[in-house]
Amino acid sequence: MTDTQPQQDPLRQAAETMRLVRDRCVWTRQITHRDLVPYLVEESAELVDAVEEGSRADLREELGDLLWQVLFHAEIASRDPVEPFDIDEVARGLTEKMVRRHPHVFAGEVAETPEQVLVLWNAAKAVEKSTRTSVLDGVSERMPSLALAQKMLGKGAPLGLGAAPVDAPSSEAELGEALLGLVALARENGWDAERALRERLRGLSMGIREAEAGLRD
User: Fold this and answer.
1) Distance (Å, rounded) from C-alpha 180 to C-alpha 194?
2) Of 9, 27, 66, 85, which is most buried, counting CB atoms within 10 Å of its CB?
3) pLDDT in tens, 76-90
């Protein structure tokens, strides 16, 4: 009977594969965090496609591709001469944060509805981000404009800021049709729909920050 080595954990094996690629691939060795950003955006978009219209095999593959981006960034970070950290520290920090934000799972709190879960989540997040001075701190302006609009409207709602709904659709399909109609209107008039929304969002951002400043005064 021969001795056999225990099989390596697949995630650990993936991290080790990334390390070897970083060491031995001449292209990979020169890549920086900034260089990876376009690939991260592309892989994220492909994962969205897989979720919305792909097969189970597509979904599994695209999740793997996105995981590779995480491993890639962590491997680059592990070699930073000033503030290095590796994938283990990334995973450890994630676990600690998720435990803090789910006290109804790990700390005896009670949450019987999604709304109660959100209250606990936001309370834990507020403690973690206590140095932030605005609800907009941490909201990336590089988000797609529609996703950014939805995020900012949620942040502005408690302050009474937002936009008045128009001819409310009754389903997501009707919403898509209405949005496409607005883009068609912009096209007919020579307007830039993307720029128009982003400029409106800049105004909303200023309004939110001014309202917050007023509450502090």
Assistant:
1) 12
2) 66
3) 999 999 999 999 999
pLDDT band at residue 6 under the 50/70/90 scheme: low
| Stretch (H or E) spanning 78 | helix 56-78
Longest dimension (CA), the chain: 80
Q: What is the pLDDT of residue 130?
A: 81
Q: In whole angstroms, what is the distance from residue 101 CA to residue 125 CA?
A: 7
Give pTM, 2 decimals. 0.79
DSSP code of residue 7: P
Is the CB of residue 104 less than 8 Å from the CB of residue 123?
Answer: no
Measuring CA to CA, how many Å separate 176 from each of 167, 191, 195, 200? 13, 19, 19, 20
Token pair 């409106």 is found at 200
User: In the chain, helix, strand, coil percent, each to 5?
Assistant: 70, 0, 30
DSSP of 129-195, one letter per residue?
TTT--STTTT--TTS-HHHHHHHHHHHHGGGT-S----S--SSHHHHHHHHHHHHHHHHHHT--HHH
Quick: pLDDT tens for 13-29: 999 999 999 999 999 99
Q: How far is the C-alpha of 205 from the C-alpha of 192, rounded, in Å? A: 20
Overall size of the chain counted in residues: 217
